[in-house]
């Protein structure tokens, strides 16, 4: 890994595995349709601009041999990465991958393969628990939760799409049972929030009555509690930290069951979390850390600009702006916002020209990417359709930026960058910009392909990522 910031603001043209909107989601077809007839003068100008924008090129996957469909590859790599922490079993994954390919890799065959595996382990865990085999039951529930999570992510591409909330509930039930069976206290908590609560878990390495440094693991756009076990929680417990895993608006049950959506003013979420932790007798009030994963890398910097009671912040990765990534990845779609069109004109262009050109896979990509931000996207995904309000989505995404607030952060901050990061685009440029804007004590680290820690959030190398993050935190605290 490198600790020297490298600034390169040229947009990436690599193919994405699971993007905010996937690269080239319209392929070459969208640009042709945009010029096929106008629905107003302003829309015709936007269509002309879109035609002038070359389509992003599709590159080969960095890891060959899983699936030909890149987003299936990417999500499965996280499961492989979790094997070192027990959240998946290598042989189970290899067997599932082979079965999916034999059936013809698709969202449906992926779901149809991992769902029976998750269900079988879930039932086996119950039998082991009934027989008094607590350790085996705990391990099985963890893996079942992980495999249910794989099903959940791709459910909009299947015939089970309307059962999204139920798929989340199955995953969450297994995660909860894993926590209940822990030898150390893994406590379900409710954090007071705007007249209601945020659900979460406070994990402690033992039951000794002492105040410890505590890491808030702030998830991103579409990972679940079980993913955070390998990507931060287990490593923190090994080092004697407490861990708080929580679900904010747009995440987990807040999204799937309560239909609360991501908000850009994330300090309104984190300040209640900090308030809650400072009242806990197990927490050292002066050593509360906020670590954000994926989109969480943007959310935590935004929060730390206003919440100054934190001891350290980890932006993993450094993420300047959602809209910058969308502009790099989806030039045709975002270009319609550049010509002063009204909400009505943008939505008419979207509904009449873009949406009819989408394939089934492209519809999945778009709706899944938009789901945490808008109710119509969530409901469209469950119905097998595409949301109508592109204007509302775009103007919401534009608000997710730290460009105007990063300089206010007074907390020591670690910024990470990943080689071949196809979600934070351009990766080196966004991370370096966040780093440059910070006036607090800071460090920037790049995880590299040479060490197997490339791609967004190092799906294949959580231990490498965790070692760097927690060694830095040990030094700061």
From TrEMBL:
This is Alpha/beta fold hydrolase. Residues 227-433 form the AB hydrolase-1 domain. Belongs to the AB hydrolase superfamily. FUS2 hydrolase family. Keywords: Hydrolase. Gene3D superfamilies: acylaminoacyl peptidase (1.20.1440.110), alpha/beta hydrolase (3.40.50.1820). It comes from Catenulispora pinistramenti. GO terms for molecular function: hydrolase activity. It comes from the Bacteria. InterPro entries: AB_hydrolase_1, AB_hydrolase_fold, FrsA_esterase, TAT_signal. The keyword Hydrolase applies. The keyword DNA-binding does not apply.
């Amino acid at each position: 890994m490198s600790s020297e910031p490298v600034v390169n603001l040229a947009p990436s043209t690599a193919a994405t595995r699971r993007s905010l909107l996937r690269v080239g989601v319209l392929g070459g077809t969208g640009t042709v349709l945009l010029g096929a007839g106008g629905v107003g003068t302003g829309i015709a100008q936007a269509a002309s601009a879109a035609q002038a924008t070359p389509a992003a090129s599709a590159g080969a996957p960095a890891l060959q041999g899983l699936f030909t469909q890149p987003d299936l590859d990417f999500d499965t790599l996280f499961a492989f990465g979790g094997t070192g922490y027990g959240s998946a079993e290598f042989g189970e994954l290899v067997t599932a991958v082979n079965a999916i390919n034999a059936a013809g890799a698709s969202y449906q065959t992926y779901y149809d393969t991992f769902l029976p595996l998750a269900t079988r382990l879930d039932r086996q865990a119950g039998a082991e628990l009934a027989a008094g085999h607590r350790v085996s039951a705990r391990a099985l529930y963890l893996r079942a939760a992980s495999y249910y999570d794989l099903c959940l992510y791709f459910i909009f591409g299947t015939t089970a799409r309307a059962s999204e909330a139920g798929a989340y509930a199955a995953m969450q039930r297994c995660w909860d049972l894993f926590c209940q069976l822990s030898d150390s206290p893994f406590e379900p908590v409710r954090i007071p929030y705007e007249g209601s609560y945020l659900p979460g878990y406070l994990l402690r390495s033992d039951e000794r009555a002492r105040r410890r440094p505590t890491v808030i693991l702030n998830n991103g756009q579409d990972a679940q509690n079980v993913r955070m076990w390998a990507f931060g929680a287990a490593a923190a417990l090994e080092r004697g930290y407490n861990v708080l895993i929580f679900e904010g608006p747009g995440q987990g049950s807040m999204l799937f069951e309560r239909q609360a959506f991501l908000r850009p003013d994330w300090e309104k979420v984190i300040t209640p979390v900090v308030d809650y932790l400072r009242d806990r007798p197990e927490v050292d009030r002066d050593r509360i850390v906020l670590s954000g994963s994926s989109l969480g890398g943007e959310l935590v910097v935004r929060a730390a600009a206003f919440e100054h009671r934190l001891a350290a912040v980890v932006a993993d990765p450094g993420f300047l702006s959602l809209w910058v990534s969308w502009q790099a990845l989806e030039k045709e779609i975002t270009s319609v916002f550049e010509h002063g069109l009204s909400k009505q004109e943008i939505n008419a262009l979207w509904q009449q020209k873009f949406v009819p050109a989408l394939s089934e896979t492209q519809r999945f990509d778009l709706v899944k990417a938009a789901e945490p931000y808008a109710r119509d996207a969530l409901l469209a995904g469950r119905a097998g359709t595409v949301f109508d309000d592109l204007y509302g989505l775009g103007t919401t995404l534009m608000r997710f930026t730290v460009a105007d607030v990063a300089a206010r952060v007074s907390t020591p901050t670690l910024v990470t960058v990943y080689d071949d990061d196809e979600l934070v685009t351009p990766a080196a440029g966004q991370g370096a910009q966040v780093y440059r804007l910070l006036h607090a004590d800071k460090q920037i680290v790049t995880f590299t392909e040479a060490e197997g820690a490339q791609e967004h959030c190092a799906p294949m190398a959580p231990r490498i990522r965790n070692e760097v993050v927690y060694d830095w935190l040990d030094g700061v605290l």
